[in-house]
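Why GINS complex, Sld5 component? Reviewers of the renewal asked for a concrete example.
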Amino acid sequence: MNERHAPDILQTEEDLLSRLLDHIRSQSETVQLLRTDPSSSEEEHFRIMLVQTEVERVKFIVRSYLRTRLFKIEKFARFIMTSPEVQQRLSESETDHARRFARLTDQHFYHSVLQSLPDSQQTLDDQPPFVPPIVTEPDKSRAVFVHARQNCAPVRLPDGTALEMQKGHISLTPYSVVEQLIARGEVELV
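Here is what the prediction returned.
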């Protein structure tokens, strides 16, 4: 849920994902063995179906998590390549994908448009005044709903007031205000 609702790319959960996929694989193998066992009763077959349904639900959640990360990586690929801090939050394969995607996007822009422009305008890194930047960055000022998992130290809102979140408290606040709390696991996005 945090990854889905955060405007920025969060730290990868590579170890958790690896353990989860191993567990799914072993559960799927066990289910297949038990389904082919002729000595199992109808009640056991019903339990096997429940386990198989739960395995499929977990697979759906894992796919959703990976799709969300892939979407963000492709959306912010050029930004990721310019920010070592963001690259540290990605797995090695995600960083490689961002690098390839940014390179392919740059090549596409160059061959379809930029090569036809004068030499001084053939770059994507220009920052003309009053024009939005070409490199898409996460909008950390976007408001998010946050649920406090524990009592949190007060955080300073953009208007200067302090927000104290007690365990179970739900707040609407800019992402930048709670970014560190999310990274430490003190709050979760809803």
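The mean pLDDT is 89. This is the kind of structural detail the renewal will allow us to pursue systematically.
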